[in-house]
Amino acid sequence: QVQLVESGGGLVQAGGSLRLSCAASGRTFNPYATGWFRQAPGKEREFVAAISRSGSVTSYANSVKGRFTISRDNAKITMYLQMNSLKPEDTAVYYCAAKDGVVVPLPKNGAQYDYWGQGTQVTVSS
């Protein structure tokens, strides 16, 4: 049984920064790809960023490119999302996800991920 637990969300003013963490627990777990998604009220879940097992390959949504940075620490089985220059439109519940099998390129469709966290709220005030 694998569990993903997000943390680090909160309320921040526009232009500020937050760092989200996603820790995995359970059986020995070293997913091929891990990613972040977000869902704002009344909107569909959307892809934010993904990273490969080695960390050498990353993918970002155009809306966050240059502002957000995804990383992972395989020794700690933890993934991070550093969010800078936050905008009110970044307000959403952020979810981390993980995928066991190899998929090239990194998946941007949530249906391709095997495990999900419970989500953490990020609110950016103007």
Structure description:
The structure is a single chain. The relative contact order is 0.32. A hairpin with a 6-residue loop joins strand 4 and strand 5. The protein is 0% helix and 51% strand. It is mainly beta. It is globular. The protein contains no helices and eleven strands. The model has no long low-confidence stretch (mean pLDDT 94). The strands form two sheets. Strands 2, 4, 5, 6, 9, 10 and 11 form a seven-stranded mixed sheet that branches.
Count of strand segments: 11
Report how far apart the termini are.
40 Å
Summing up helix and strand content along with how strands pair, one would put the structural category as: mainly beta
The percentage of residues in β strands lies in: over 45%
Uncertain segments: none
Overall morphology: globular
Total of helices: 0
Integer-rounded radius of gyration? 14 Å
Helix content: under 10%
The H/E string reads: EEEEEEEEEEE
Mean pLDDT: 94
Largest β sheet strand count, sense and barrel closure:
7 strands, mixed
Task: Give a short overview.
The chain has strands at 2-7, 10-13, 18-26, 33-39, 46-52, 58-60, 68-73, 78-83, 92-99, 115-116, 120-125. By secondary structure, the protein is mainly beta. Strand 7 and strand 8 form a beta hairpin.
